[in-house]
Write a structure and sequence with these properties.
30% helix; four-stranded antiparallel beta sheet; rod-shaped; alpha+beta
């Protein structure tokens, strides 16, 4: 009689473990998908606002926008989802939530 319960108990334990593991995995992914602020630095010197390499995450780990002098001359920052490199924005599709402009200093 005890042997009848061993297989179902093993199955329940395996399913519970798989559900618990996938819950932690899903949490890790959602953390990477949170929107962050990235400042346009033009580090490549080409002025390409569509190149993620020209951006860097703000010092607050992306939580706060950088101070942008008022104006609309050039790109200052974007609020976006991180790209493959978490320190650079994903600039494709609907990943950019907000764009801030600034005056040329």
């Amino acid at each position: 009689m005890k042997k009848k319960f061993i297989i179902p108990m093993i199955a329940v334990a395996a399913i519970s473990g798989a559900v618990l593991f996938s819950a932690f995995k899903a949490e890790d992914k959602s953390e990477n998908l949170s929107q962050k602020w990235f400042e346009f630095t033009n580090v490549l010197g080409d002025g390409d606002v569509n190149n993620p390499a020209n951006y860097m995450i703000t010092p607050s780990d992306g939580a706060n926008a950088p101070g942008c002098p008022e104006g609309s001359d050039e790109r200052c920052a974007v609020l976006a989802l991180p790209g493959t490199n978490p320190d650079q924005p994903n600039l494709s599709g609907g990943s950019v939530i907000e764009i801030r402009q600034r005056a040329i200093e």
